[in-house]
Design goal:
This protein has 20 helices and 14 strands. By secondary structure, the chain is α/β, with parallel strands linked by helices. It has four domains: 136 residues, Rossmann fold, CATH 3.40.50; 163 residues, Rossmann fold (3-Layer(aba) Sandwich), CATH 3.40.50; 83 residues, Helicase, Ruva Protein, domain 3; 69 residues, Arc Repressor Mutant, subunit A (Orthogonal Bundle). Helix 3 links the parallel strand 3 and strand 4. It is flat.
Length: 479
């Protein structure tokens, strides 16, 4: 069936319409009226032939007479709706009563029209049905998109590198395979783990996290697999381990590279057998968990050096996801910095309205060795200490103020084509900085009144709005 995009005028979209009516004159009249509107119309006087056509699902709307010999319209309506054909049904009858119309609507009819009807009445009913269909489909699409993306809350990024990560998260979340999340410290590996769990079929069950660096090997083994009373000094009671506590849910092992070789062996056996044995116990317990491991170290290198089991490495790396460092996420620094600033100011009731172009340019040029975590901490620090309406260059730490702008830090290209592209990128960056500064100055001069600003600088109000959207500048005063 043809989809009706929500951003189009449904009155101008051709629809495929099926007319099922034992009166030939009705079918001919509908065809004549609707063909002039560009609709494709097929007519059937035989109700059973009409039913067969309706069940194909090839039509957007079925105009259905309620009283026909052999099989009545109500029965056809029920069968069409039960089949899931997707067509909207408008019932047509010369014997209409409120009761029959209500019953038809209860059975799934979109609307009804009584005989005799005028061309305008027919057009209005079909327009209303088309609008309703468009709204239903738009809502369904939005719900689907929301369901798909709601697990990514808190994760920000529009760079190609992060778009690939988001796509991987959505794909692996549907499966039950073991996931290995790699990336430098501070890149947000824990958020990836949380997103995978929230988007997975296990989302209604626990997500438990274990930091493999926080405990000594003997205590870590007890933490993971549990222990029985008296199994070692201090084991005053039997304790359930995290594998059992996370049953039906997700277990996250952070910094898995720090596991001892002995614990690595026990982890491998647990993954392969789906059974664990508590420390000091002789019985095994079956567990059903989804394991996600994360590390900021190169496990392949550790395998080659003999510090990590090769068989466990490949058992963990069933579904690998690499989270890129912030320096490789072109364009994400402004997105993240702005989001962190808004969140921090709202939480702490601060009145800091964004970053100056110069400050943001230096932030984008900085290498961010601490990645997203460092960016978040610095934004919170400068927002707290900021003594102006926005964060200026002098508010930033020295290491960021001294960062070489990206265009100057980039190696000069070796080919003419690459150099031309390099020059254009440099020009664009300078123009954008100037344009944003020009807009900000003009808006501040006119107290952020859009209409006054447009008149002051001599451009159309709509053009000013477009430029403000381009640079994420907002105003509470619109006229």
């Amino acid at each position: 069936m043809n989809a009706i995009p929500a951003d189009h005028d449904v009155r101008n979209l051709a629809q495929r319409i099926l007319v099922i009516d034992d009166e030939a004159v009705i079918g001919l009249a509908c065809k004549r009226i609707l063909a002039t509107e560009g609709h494709q119309v097929e007519c059937h006087q035989d109700p059973r032939a009409g039913l067969e056509a309706a069940l194909t699902g090839h039509f957007d709307v079925v105009l259905l007479d309620m009283v026909m010999p052999g099989i009545d319209g109500m029965e056809i309506l029920k069968q069409v709706k039960a089949s899931g054909a997707g067509s909207e049904v408008v019932v047509v009858t010369g014997h209409s009563t409120v009761e029959s119309a209500v019953e038809a609507m209860k059975q799934g009819a979109a609307d009804y029209i009584g005989k005799p009807f005028s061309p305008n009445q027919l057009r209005m009913v079909l327009q209303k049905v088309a609008e309703r269909t468009a709204l239903i489909r738009e809502n369904a699409a939005l719900r689907s998109e929301l369901e798909l993306n709601q697990g990514l809350e808190g994760m920000i990024g529009g760079s190609p590198a992060m778009e690939r990560v988001f796509a991987l998260i959505k794909r692996v979340a549907r499966t039950d395979g073991t996931v290995l999340v790699t990336g430098e410290s501070g890149t947000g590996k824990e958020m990836v783990v949380g997103a995978i769990h929230r988007l997975s079929p296990r989302k209604g069950h626990p997500l438990l996290a274990c930091d493999c660096t926080a405990l000594a090997p003997t205590l870590l083994e007890s933490e993971l697999f549990g222990h029985v009373k008296g199994s070692f000094s201090g084991a005053i009671a039997t304790k359930q381990g995290m594998f059992e506590a996370a049953h039906l849910g997700t277990l996250f092992l952070d910094e898995v590279a720090n596991l001892s070789m002995e614990t690595q062996g026990k982890l491998l056996r647990a993954l392969e057998s789906r059974r664990i044995k508590r420390v000091g116990d002789t019985a095994e317990h079956e567990v059903d968990i989804r394991l996600i491991a994360a590390t900021n170290r190169d496990l392949q290198e550790m395998v080659e050096e003999g510090d990590f089991r090769e068989d466990l490495f490949y058992r963990l790396k069933v579904l690998p996801i690499h989270v890129p460092p912030l320096r490789e996420r072109a364009g994400d620094v402004p997105r993240l910095a702005t989001a962190f600033l808004l969140r921090f100011c709202k939480k702490n009731h601060l009145d800091v309205d964004g970053f100056s172009p110069e400050a943001m340019a230096r932030m984008e040029a900085y290498g961010w060795p601490g990645n997203v975590r460092e960016l978040r901490n610095i934004v919170e620090r400068v927002a707290t200490l900021c003594d102006a309406e926005r964060i200026e260059l002098h508010h930033l730490p020295a290491e960021i103020r001294e960062a070489v702008p990206r265009s100057a830090a980039t190696d000069i290209p070796r080919t003419w084509e690459a150099f031309k592209q390099y020059k254009q990128q440099a020009r664009d960056a300078v123009v954008q900085d100037l344009e944003r500064g020009f807009l900000t100055d003009a808006l501040e001069r006119n107290e952020w009144n859009v209409t006054k600003t447009a008149e002051d600088v001599g451009i159309q109000r709509t053009q000013l709005h477009a430029m403000m959207r381009k640079y994420s500048l907002t105003s509470e005063i619109d006229d």
